[in-house]
Write a structure and sequence with these properties.
With about 200 residues, this protein is an all-alpha fold. The chain has two domains: about 45 residues, no CATH class; about 140 residues, Lysozyme (Orthogonal Bundle), CATH 1.10.530. A two-stranded antiparallel sheet has the order 1-2. Strand 1 and strand 2 form a beta hairpin. Helix 4 crosses helix 5 and helix 5 packs parallel to helix 8. The chain is globular and about 35 Å long.
């Protein structure tokens, strides 16, 4: 009987370690994990429908249709790149696509026309150079990768900021003349629309 009790306790301990180890990287993640244990919810359930982490909720073909129809002509044909990077980083590619739309209409407006910078990042380890206060990339695919690395990194996902309404106030703060509420509304509207499979823009 003692052996069974010991085995049971060991199984419980292993499960707790598996749940809490990723969370203790930051206080935010730890608190989220503890809340999940108390309520019985998973992190994805607690985060709601606009958590950026997860499998793709739209196809590479739909991404390409949108880029070819509404975007900078040079982005046409790069849908598979945006999709595959999402799979690689564990981030649903519907989100960078929505950021891309809000920032520059898929590279048709603003600095992104020249910088090939999906999210108008100010700097990136992957940049070729900087111009006008923005990171510049030699191709769109590298610009996509830079966005994924930023969101997946210590400023956002690894700091416990995993939902649109958590990420955008830091990503596009009002102190920089942005409207986080408007940005959130546009992104969430685009996500809802594209998840229906429609090749149109909000």
């Amino acid at each position: 009987m003692k052996a069974l009790e010991t085995l049971f306790l060991c199984v419980i301990l292993v499960c707790l370690i598996a749940i809490l180890t990723p969370a203790i990287e930051s206080p935010g993640k730890f608190a989220s994990a503890m809340h999940s244990l108390q309520t019985g919810q998973t992190t994805q359930q607690a985060a709601g429908p606009y958590a950026v982490q997860g499998p793709p909720t739209l196809s590479a073909q739909l991404i390409d249709q949108l880029l070819c129809k509404y975007g900078n002509p040079a982005t046409c044909g790069t849908g598979a790149d945006l999709y595959n990077l999402g799979v690689q980083y564990g981030i649903d590619p519907v989100y960078p696509l929505a950021f891309f739309w809000n920032e520059s209409n898929f590279g048709r407006a603003g600095a992104a026309v020249a910088t090939r910078n999906l999210g108008n990042l100010r700097s990136s380890p992957l940049e070729a150079f900087e111009s006008g206060g923005y990171a510049c990339f030699y191709d769109w695919q590298t610009g996509y990768k830079a966005w994924y690395e930023l969101i997946d990194g210590p400023m956002y996902v690894k700091a416990g900021l995993t939902t649109v309404d958590q990420i955008i106030p830091r990503y596009a703060p009002s102190a920089d003349s942005n409207s986080p509420d408007h940005y959130i509304a546009v992104v969430e509207s685009a996500v809802r629309l594209w998840r229906t499979g429609k090749a149109t823009v909000p």
